[in-house]
């Protein structure tokens, strides 16, 4: 069999970035299928859907809110590639910054020889982060930032246990996986995942306590206090509480602001460090630079990744000087720490986010999503719940609004239907795999958003 070529298609169409969908073949097309055979042959089944018999669409070019696949199909992206491309895919300013830096110096020794951009990025993060969060540790992935956060909390407090939440996701390296709740990822490694207790999140649509907000007065947060304060709860020696301000993998679950505020008070009362995992929600995604701002909460440790460089792998754990002082020099390093190209990309991405008003745009997007998704819910019986904060907008599909039976098969069909219409809405998730999770690049045009949501509605209707 001839090897599929990895050649880039010659030129993108005029206006690429702000274009509406245009499909040339079914998705995935023949070239995606051809490349899939190559990937399946040579890549471990860890990292794609191929082992499940599902052929993914191979992306070839991206710009702003457009994706061009290897078969020439043009999509509007409602996912930003797992919430990453906050400032737009292949944002020209970020591309220029990282290309210039790569030409000058691609690597400086992570631990022993820093580069100027590393100092500038650490300074910029200190300026932007809330409260006294003024020192950071740079890393490459979200999971790594979480690892450092958990280790920092344990070092600083001298305690061992962590409270995390059911439905929470924090990464798949062993330390982060311990805090992650999804049993699918955890099951084979269960024996190595100690030190974390998972408690119910403020998932109001499916309240673990059978209560209703606001009458419940966020009882779920009170329950966290109960577990900590009850002498015989079996939970003791708690170093940290790690929480996503909006649960991502859990299904775009937006808690009432009082949930986080109560958690802050509980942590203060018990000398527990509050870790806000803002790997999805940070960098403007929710209409504030950091989602904790919605609740007026300053965490002790904050983690960012995805949107930090809008596509280049870099992450950060940000904390206070006092908490960071628990570390001894060189106790946690990695080869690519503070990579100059990553720092250049992050600085440019943060400049785009702050200077182009993208945070305000995410806030405005919330109103647009609200109007359109509420209308969609009135017209589609499948839509049980609509959850939105800034540019994070999710619809939870159910077979019956009364029983709330999850409609996972219909959700999968809706996403597949949308793909055929040129709408990338592939972030299907939630505990029951029935939530269509949207998080477009913040530079998506209002026309692109409006057309993509019309096409999504058709796709959901067709899936019923
Ligand atoms: C909230 C949250 N934390 C941590 C991670 C892990 O990040 P990474 O996949 O870069 O390791 C993710 C990834 O999706 C995430 O959504």
Q: What is the 3D shape?
A: globular
The overall pLDDT average reads 96
Poorly predicted ranges (pLDDT <50, ≥5 residues)? none
Measured on Cα atoms, how large is the radius of gyration? 22 Å
Task: Please characterize this protein's 3D structure.
The chain is an alpha/beta fold and 464 residues long. The chain folds into two domains: 58-91 and 358-463, Aspartate Aminotransferase, domain 1; 93-355, Aspartate Aminotransferase, domain 2, CATH 3.40.640. Helices cover 36% and strands 15% of the residues. It contains 14 helices and 15 strands. It has a seven-stranded mixed beta sheet with strand order 4-10-9-8-7-5-6, sandwiched between helices. It has a four-stranded mixed beta sheet with strand order 1-2-3-13. Strand 14 and strand 15 form a beta hairpin. The protein is globular, with a radius of gyration of 22 Å. The model has no long low-confidence stretch (mean pLDDT 96). The chain binds pyridoxal-5'-phosphate. The site of pyridoxal-5'-phosphate has 15 residues, from helix 5.
Short description:
This protein is of the alpha/beta class. It has 2 domains: 140 residues, Aspartate Aminotransferase, domain 1, CATH 3.90.1150; 263 residues, Aspartate Aminotransferase, domain 2, CATH 3.40.640.
